[in-house]
Write a structure and sequence with these properties.
heterodimer, A: 135 residues, mainly beta, 8-stranded mixed beta sheet, B: 117 residues, 11 strands, globular
Chain lengths: 135, 117
């Protein structure tokens, strides 16, 4: 059976349902992701837009990644601030979801971790999540 | 946001609320005396009740959504989102909570004690 997973913002008014497993994703410690999450890693999962349904009000924020130079548009809940998903300009028809918003410890493990040079030394990952140099 | 001195305590949390707020699987947080934290710029507040029933007030940027800090049940203490400092040499967390919500692939240094309950 195809997995149906729900992600949500902190207050619960912005929600997203994703069908099936993510087609990509990873862990990122770029400075922009640290600022967005307030954590030292972001965990991201890519889904085809066609397999995602979104409900609730959102506001958008366009950021230029200081390190990647990539312009991304984030969509966040205006009530609590959680960024739930963002557009991937290089991959039409695919969006990235903030995987922590699924709050599911059994969510598929990310394979790669980028901008690991910004990650604190007290944090590492099990086999299966490799540090990789961002393109 | 600017903070002065070292934190009173710093920790890692994987409770559901922290995962929903950060969009990450861990939050990294540090407590400071309120008078050592200065917040500049426009702020919006989000209020929710904590597990212990206290009301927590989160302050976030209305333009991008980032939550910078919040109040703890302990009066006079402000908790900050450590990632916003983007400093990999920030003091290592001295406690990890809600470990049962954390995915198995996330490995914390052995020196960080897990607190259950």
């Amino acid at each position: 059976m195809t997995a149906l997973r729900e992600a949500r913002c902190a207050c619960g008014s912005l929600r997203l349902t994703a069908e099936g497993d993510p087609i990509g994703g990873g862990v990122c410690s770029c400075l922009a992701c640290q600022r967005r999450t307030g954590s030292v890693i972001s965990v991201n999962a890519a889904f085809p837009e066609a397999r995602v349904r979104i409900s609730g009000a959102s506001r958008s924020f366009r950021r230029m990644g200081a390190e990647s130079g990539m312009a991304l548009t984030f969509h966040f809940c205006p009530t609590c601030g959680t960024s739930l998903w963002w557009d991937l300009p290089d991959v039409p028809g695919v969006i990235a979801v903030a995987a922590g918003c699924f709050a599911d410890r059994d969510f598929p493990q990310p394979r790669g971790a980028i901008y690991f040079e910004n990650r604190p030394r007290w944090l590492g990952f099990a086999e299966g999540t490799r540090d990789v140099v961002a393109r | 946001m600017r903070v002065e001195g070292d934190p009173l305590m710093q920790g890692v949390c994987s409770c559901l609320d922290c995962q929903w707020r950060t969009g990450s699987v861990i939050s990294v947080n540090a407590g400071y005396p309120a008078d050592r934290v200065v917040l500049k710029g426009e702020v919006r507040e989000f209020r929710r009740s904590s597990d212990s029933g206290n009301e927590v007030v989160f302050r976030f940027c209305p333009a991008c959504g980032t939550t910078l800090n919040w109040d703890l049940a302990t009066p006079g203490v402000v908790v900050i989102a450590v990632g916003c400092l983007t400093d990999r040499d920030f003091p290592t967390p001295n406690i990890a909570v809600y470990g049962h919500r954390r995915p198995d692939w996330v490995c914390l240094a052995n020196a960080i004690p897990e607190h259950f309950g």
